[in-house]
Amino acid sequence: MSHHTDPFAPAIHTGRIWLRTVADRLGTDDRMEAHRALRAWLHTVRDRLDIGAAAHLSAQLPTLLRGVYYEGWTPGSVPVRHDPQSFLEQFARTADMSTEEARRISAAVTDALAQLFSPGQLDHVLAQLPVPLRRVLLGADFGDILTSAGIFETPEAQR
Hints:
By secondary structure, this protein is mainly alpha-helical. It has helices at 9-26, 31-46, 51-58, 63-70, 84-95, 99-116, 121-127, 131-138, 140-148, 155-158.
């Protein structure tokens, strides 16, 4: 169907581009797997942001994914606990995977979204979260690079 006769076609097209970017970063052709991972990332991060930051993040999303983002959201119950373990458990439950997989997959989705968001937007989102959770979202390798560069404190230094 032509974009000229289907008003939803541009939203669907953009949503597919974002989903393909996530799938590529995950190394899969399975769009359902990519959707579960992206949805888990969006919901799990959203729930750890205050209402203003959550709304700011949603403004960066394509129309179709904005609906996914707000699905099931209860603004009166955010933000929830910020520790990495609760994040990984919620992510794993939402994406239907193990918590071990959730660590790798959440970092891969973060990497994909860094390519898709406006410059600086992901930095703004991550700045709203505590350092240990940022390290999970960035992945161990990148988190270690930032720590060694003095950008993130080590967990020992935070005590």
